[in-house]
Amino acid sequence: MADTYTRILVHCIFSTKDRRPQISEPDKLWTYLRGIARNRGVDTLAIGGTTNHVHMLLALPSGLTIAHLMRDLKANSSRHLNEKQRGFAWQDGYAAISVSPSQIQTVRRYIETQDAHHTKRDFESEYVAILDKSGVQRSAEYTFG
After folding, report:
1. Residues 120-137: pLDDT tens digits?
2. How far is 57 from 13, CA to CA, in rounded Å?
3. pTM for this one?
4. Which residue blocks in the chain are alpha helix, DSSP H?
5. CB burial class (10 A; 0-12, 13-18, 19+) of residue 98?
6. Domain 8-133 part of CATH 3.30.70.1290
7. For the chain, domain boundaries
8. CA-CA distance, 92 to 72, in Å (whole number)?
9. What would the pLDDT profile of 33-65 be if each residue is shown by its tens digit?
10. Which conformational region is residue 5 in: left (phi greater than 0), alpha (psi within -120 to 50 degrees), or beta?
């Protein structure tokens, strides 16, 4: 029987509830999120963000849905962060945009330079621009629900 080969690359973006600046120790959160992903068989190619949102470039195994992975990432990290700072919450929803293997370095660089990027553009305008550029159909009314 022939082997099955997949390369499923996804740029995931999610924010804190109401985009509040609640990520006080980003490097520790990035490490924790990497651990959750690794436990689900996911390779984290890049991770970054600011005090109110996260970007992850992920290589998914073929049997894992993005919905299940995002549920696990957000639920487990929220529980962990609430142990240290009461009232932490992620915004409902997320963006998950497919990435061509030829664009890995470009997306990785973009994710790793989030601090510099956000000196010029806030999260909301960045998020809308990424969705629009990707051709995602969205309702303006529910984009930040």
Report:
1. 888 888 988 888 898 888
2. 9
3. 0.92
4. 26-39, 66-84, 104-112, 114-117, 123-133
5. exposed
6. yes
7. 8-133
8. 13
9. 999 999 999 999 999 999 999 999 999 999 999
10. beta
